C-alpha cells in the first residue's frame, strides 16, 4: 500500500522548507522581495512606504515606515496564517531590545 502526503507534517525533515516556501510565496504576493544579503529578510518598498520582515523559523520581526502600513501587513498575515501580534519588540532569539533616542539598543 502506498500513501501520498498532500501537506508537510510538523516534525518531518522537509517541514521547515515547506513552511518557508509557503510563507515566502505569500509574501511575494504582498509585493515583498527577498533580500540578497539574507534569505530570511524580506523587504517591501512602494513609493514612500517601506517595511522589513525578518523570519526565523516561526518567529517574525516586522517593522514599517508607518503604523498604517504595519497594520495592513499584520492584517494580511493574520488572514492567511494563524498568528498573534505580540506588540512591540522586547526580545528576539535571546537578544534584549530596548528603545534608545538614536534607535534600538541590542544586548
Shape: globular
**Which range best describes the helical content: under 10%, 10-25%, 25-40%, 40-55%, 55-70% or over 70%?**
25-40%
Can you tell me the residue ranges where pLDDT is under 50 for at least 5 consecutive residues? Answer: none
The total count of strands amounts to: 7
Strand content: 25-35%
| Strand-pairing-aware structural class | alpha+beta
N- and C-termini, Cα separation: 54 Å
From the alpha-carbon coordinates, what is the Rg to the nearest angstrom?
Answer: 16 Å
Order of helices and strands: HEEEEHEEE
Q: How are the strands ordered across the major sheet? A: 1-2-3-4
- Helical stretch count? 2
What does this structure look like?
Strand 5 and strand 6 (95-100) form a beta hairpin. The protein is globular. A four-stranded antiparallel beta sheet has the order 1-2-3-4. The chain has a three-stranded antiparallel beta sheet with strand order 5-6-7, with no helix packed on it. It has one domain. It has helices spanning 15-29, 67-80, and strands at residues 33-34, 41-46, 49-56, 59-64, 91-92, 95-100, 103-106. It contains two helices and seven strands, in the order αββββαβββ. With 107 residues, the protein is of the alpha+beta class. It is 27% helix and 32% strand.
Amino acid at each position: 500500500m502506498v500513501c501520498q502526503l498532500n501537506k508537510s507534517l510538523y516534525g518531518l525533515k522537509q517541514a521547515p522548507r515547506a513552511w518557508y516556501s509557503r510563507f515566502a510565496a505569500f509574501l511575494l504576493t504582498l509585493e515583498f522581495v527577498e533580500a540578497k544579503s539574507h534569505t530570511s529578510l524580506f523587504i517591501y518598498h512602494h513609493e514612500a512606504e517601506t517595511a522589513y520582515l525578518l523570519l526565523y523559523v516561526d518567529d517574525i520581526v516586522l517593522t514599517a515606515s508607518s503604523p498604517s502600513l504595519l497594520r495592513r501587513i499584520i492584517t494580511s498575515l493574520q488572514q492567511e496564517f494563524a498568528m498573534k501580534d505580540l506588540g512591540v519588540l522586547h526580545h528576539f532569539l535571546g537578544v534584549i531590545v530596548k528603545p534608545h533616542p538614536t534607535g534600538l539598543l541590542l544586548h
